Amino acid sequence: MKENSFKSVYDAPIGKMIIISDGESIIEIDHVNHDEPIISNPDELCNLAAKQLDEYFAGARIEFDLPLKTIKGTEFQKAAWQALTTIPYGETISYGEQAKRMNNPKAVRAVGGANGKNPFSIVVPCHRVIGANGTLTGYTGGMSRKEWLLGFEKKMRVNGMLDTNSI
Q1: Which residues pair with 120 in a beta bridge?
Q2: Is the distance from CB of 68 to CB of 25 less than 8 angstroms?
Q3: What pLDDT score was predicted for residue 134?
Q4: pLDDT digits (tens, 9 = 90+) for 107-144
Q5: Distance of CA 126 to CAs 7, 98, 140, 146, 166, Å?
Q6: CATH top class, domain 75-159
Q7: Domain map of the chain by residue range?
Q8: If residue 101 lies in a helix (H) or strand (E), which one and from where to where?
Q9: Which of 10, 39, 61, 75 could form a cystine bridge with 17, CB 3.0-4.6 A?
Q10: Neighbours of 25 (CB within 10 A)
């Protein structure tokens, strides 16, 4: 990570998250799974990401509009993360379906591994990928967070609580 990075701790309904910017792009949004203190020094991009996450959790945003930049990852991982962005809000697909969408139907396990390294939790929705039999599998933020996110999106969609005109 570059020395001139900016960090912000975001208090999500599902626990603390960290937002990291390099001053030009968001380079990471992740769940915090430890108790170590994080020093915040947010810039405008961190604040913008926090605002959009607030809108998402309020049910007023289904897509994010942030300048994201991947600073790590293989070409395959980056392709897997790009494929995640095509999964509509409130819907799920299997790892096999994601592999098919990447024109690599045998890469199911590799897709799962790539999703586990997704640097943009929630914004690039790896939580929307589930097992072929419909079970919830794998999420680096923890299975309870994945279950909460999927339930939240489904509830917002089913109850028509989304105001898509304001997004």
Answers
A1: 29
A2: yes
A3: 84
A4: 999 999 999 999 999 999 999 999 888 888 878 788 89
A5: 22, 10, 10, 9, 24
A6: mainly alpha
A7: 6-58, 75-159
A8: helix 95-101
A9: 10
A10: 14
Taking the alpha carbons of 93, 97, 98, 101 in that order, is the dihedral positive or negative?
negative
Rounded-to-integer distance, Cα 48 and Cα 61, Å: 13
| Token pair of 144 as six digits | 């309870």
Nearest alpha carbon to residue 28 among 57, 8, 3, 4: 8
Angle ∠(1,114,20) on CA atoms, nearest 5: 30
- Report how far residue 28's alpha carbon sits from residue 68's, in angstroms, rounded to the nearest whole number: 8
pLDDT (tens digit per residue) in 69-88: 999 999 999 999 999 999 99
Beta strands 93-94; 129-130: pairing state: parallel
- 65 Cβ neighbours under 8 A, 6+ residues apart: 52
Instruction: Report how far apart, in Å, the C-alpha atoms of 67 and of each of 35, 44, 123, 159 are.
Output: 28, 12, 11, 31
Beta pairing, strands 26-31 & 93-94: unpaired
